[in-house]
Known about the structure:
Layout: H1 16-30, E1 37-38, H2 50-62, H3 79-90, E2 101-104, H4 107-113, E3 124-128, H5 132-140, E4 147-148, E5 151-152, E6 156-159, E7 177-181, H6 193-206, E8 209-213, E9 239-244, H7 246-249, E10 257-260, H8 274-286, H9 292-301, H10 304-330, E11 335-337, E12 343-347, H11 354-365, E13 367-368, E14 370-371, E15 382-386, H12 391-404
Parallel strand pairs: 1-13, 3-6, 3-7, 7-8, 8-9
Antiparallel strand pairs: 2-10, 4-5, 9-10, 11-12, 12-15, 14-15
Helix pairs in contact: 2-9, 4-5, 10-12
This protein binds ligand PL4.
Amino acid sequence: xxxxxxxxxxxxxxxxxxxxxxxxxxxxxxxxxxxxxxxxxxxxxxxxxxxxxxxxxxxxxxxxxxxxxxxxxxxxxxxxxxxxxxxxxxxxxxxxxxxxxxxxxxxxxxxxxxxxxxxxxxxxxxxxxxxxxxxxxxxxxxxxxxxxxxxxxxxxxxxxxxxxxxxxxxxxxxxxxxxxxxxxxxxxxxxxxxxxxxxxxxxxxxxxxxxxxxxxxxxxxxxxxxxxxxxxxxxxxxxxxxxxxxxxxxxxxxxxxxxxxxxxxxxxxxxxxxxxxxxxxxxxxxxxxxxxxxxxxxxxxxxxxxxxxxxxxxxxxxxxxxxxxxxxxxxxxxxxxxxxxxxxxxxxxxxxxxxxxxxxxxxxxxxxxxxxxxxxxxxxxxxxxxxxxxxxxxxxxxxxxxxxxxx
Length: 407
Ligand code: PL4
């Protein structure tokens, strides 16, 4: 008799982003003709830059000729792309071998799938608030108990608050797997080297593994802030890093990402190289590689022209974040993030709950954002606005908030 995975029944609510879409659509049905300005989901809006588009076209054209046609490729990714990624890290003085880079179709899937190479009874710690995938995928994998008002039983929540600058204190007990995201979704906070060093030392001491999601690393403009956890001494033995072309190159729909599993990275019960071998095995079994056309686009994104054009696009989104911050602050609203991240994290005025502020912003200003509580218990009373919009829409949204929000 087939049986379902009952862990799905533990999930406390629908996945956050479809829930926002559902509520927005319900609003539009009730208010026919209304137009909403979407600063909710962190989805890119600007067209792919010319150098990267050329790379994608070249990838397509190669498929049209017998001598350059390619079918299945290595599931870990094509060599030029892995080498290009290793070169990117080498620029920051990091010595990672191309074979330690695993190309994939998304940091989302990798940050969930990575769990399959670790024991079921590992204790998981997450920043609170956090990108919902970390928690929900651990629920589905069976690493938590039931949902309660303060989160899932068995999961260690590491609160990120105004008091600690939205970077958590070290876990107060022994944990095995630790999710850290920097620049952070949703708070926009960026971890310093010193802050990461604390976690790296903890992980090496307790033989824990850090899953470091740096999907927004290209938004870091402050040169003193680390773009990779491997900039911290000791990280290679305890950290697995995820990154993505989604937000840097406008590939949210195209799909291309990478995960770094250094050979030196190890657990208490395994030698160096074992985690690398297990992830290779996992990917070889479950994944047939990212699309060859898309990987050609990725190689182009790493070229000097690609880099300079995508950097300009990242700067464009950061300017959106500045505009959002400036507008909200002119109303006296407390905001965080935005400087080195594409998200502005605001404290809801009047102590409103995150979802009440969602309704208020939608009803009064026709602006869609993301309730902080959707990212975890410590997100309650906060709200996230995404800077990934067309300039005109961002400006309209900010003007609407300034003119119509009743606070
Ligand atoms: C909506 C910290 C966005 N439907 O595109 P990927 O898979 O390479 O990367 C996804 C990702 C990975 N890590 C972090 C992220 O914030 C994201 C994307 N998050 C958001 O608004 O929070 C898009 C969400 C999408 C989803 O469910 O991921």
